[in-house]
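Technical annex B. To support the medicinal chemistry partners, we prepared a structural model of the target in complex with magnesium ion, based solely on the information shown next.
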Amino acid sequence: MTNRIINILRQGKPEQKIKIQGWIRTKRELKEFAFIEVNDGSSLANLQVVLNQDLPDYQTMVKRLNTGVSLAVEGELVESPAKGQKVELKADKVEIFGDCDAETYPLQKKRHSFEFLRSIGHLRGRTNTIGAVMRVRNACANAIHQFFQNKGFLWVHTPIITASDCEGAGELFTVSNLNFEQILQAKKEKIDYSEDFFGRQAYLTVSGQLEAEIMAMAFENVYTFGPTFRAENSNTSRHLAEFWMVEPEMAFCDLEGDQNLAEEFLKYVFNFVLNSCPEDLEFFNQRINQNVLSNADNIINNEFARITYTEAINLLEKCDRTFEFPVEWGIDLQSEHERYLAEQLFKKPVIVTNYPKDIKAFYMRLNDDQKTVSAMDILAPNIGEIIGGSQREERLDVLESRIADLEIDRDSLWWYLDLRRYGSVPHAGFGLGFERLVQFMTGMENIRDVIPFPRTPMNAEF
Ligand code: 4AD
Ligand code: MG
C-alpha cells in the first residue's frame, strides 16, 4: 500500500514502514547522504526523503535523482530534525520509474512567470502555485455539490450541444459535421444546416439555464454544473471561451430568495475551502495576494451589500472618480464600475438588482415599472461580476411580448413557452462562474491560471 504524502505529513508517526510515490522537487547531496524532496500532488508540502550511502548502487542512483524524476520510495519514518516537518522518510528501497533530464527539464528550481508556465501546460501542475490552485478548485467543486445536496437539490445534467442561445448575445460556437471543403468546392452560396448532423444549426451551450428551468418545473430545486462556451473575443484576465458554470434553479422562488441562496452559497463554499485547504490558502495569502485570508473572513462573516441598479448608478454618478465609460441610467455596468462599487465603496460583495430590461436577457421577469427586470448580479472585490441571475418570467403573455420585441425565434422556444402554459410557477436561479470563484478565493490575477487547460481566442493548446 502506498500512502499519499498529505496523510503522512499530517498523521505519520516515527517507526512506521511506508511506501510513497511521486516526483522529485529538489535534491541536496552531502558527503555521506543525500536529501530529496518528493511531491505527489496531494499537498503543498513535500516529504523529505533521506538516502544513505549504504543503499545499493548509491552513487549511480543519486546521480539520476534529478528534479522531475518519478519514483517510489519504501522505508521507515523517522523524526525529522528539520524545521517545519515532524517526520521524514529514511529510504530502504528506491525504484525509479522515469528519468528526467536536468538540462532540458523546463521546470528549473527558480521562479517562473505564470505566462511561461502556461506554455508548459503539460508540466505546470507540478509547481507549488498551480498545484495549490487545482486542490482549491477541487475543494470548491466538492463544496458546491455538498451545499446543494445537503439542501436536497437534484443535480441535473443539461446538454452541451443545444439549438438555443440562452443569453441572446450571439456568442455561439457552431457544432457541425458538414464538409466545408466540399461546400466550398460546390460553390454553394449558403450553408444548408438542414443537411447538417442535427438537421438544424446547433451550438455549444452558453448556459444550462433553460434546460435547468425545465427540470425545476418537475423537481422544484435543481442545479447544473458543467462546461459552458462563449465565442466572446475578449482577451481579458476574467474571460475564457470555455468555462464552468454552476446554475441552481428554484421553483416557487423570487428574487429575494435567489439573493439569499446565492449569499448563503458563497459563504458555505468559502468556509468549506478554508477548512479543507488551509495550507494552500495560507500559501496564496503569502505569495499571491495578501488579502486572501481577510477576504475569506470578510465573505463569511459580513452580510453582502444589496442595492438596486438605480441606486448603483446614483452612487457612481455622485462619486469623485472619473470612469473610462461614462455613467448614466441605462448603461451596462462595466468592470471598472463593478469593481469600484465592490472594492472602494462597499469593500465587500455587492448584490445589484433590478437592471434596465434593455441590457438583460429575454427570460428575466419584467417589473411593474415596465422598465426594469428582476435581475441580480453579485459583484466581488477584484473580480467584478461573479454571479448573474434573475427571477424568470413565468407569465406567458409577458414572455411572448418580450420575445417578439427582441425578435427572437419563437418557434425554437416552443417548449419554454409551454412551461408557462402548463403549471407555471414563479421561479428564479443564478449562474456562478466557477473559475471566477476560484480566482476570488485564491487571489490569482489571471483566469487562465485557475483552469487546467484554458481555452481563449487563438489558443487551444493541450
Ligand atoms: O451572467 P451570465 O451570462 O448568466 C447566465 O448565463 C445565466 N443564464 C445564468 C443563470 O441565471 N442561470 O453568466 C453567469 C456567470 C457570470 O456572472 C460570470 O461569473 C461567468 O458566468 N462568466 C464567465 N466566466 C468566465 N469566462 C466568461 N467568458 C464568462 N462569461 C460569464
Ligand atoms: Mg451576466
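Notes passed to the chemistry partners:
The radius of gyration is 27 Å.
The first strand starts at residue 17 and ends at 29.
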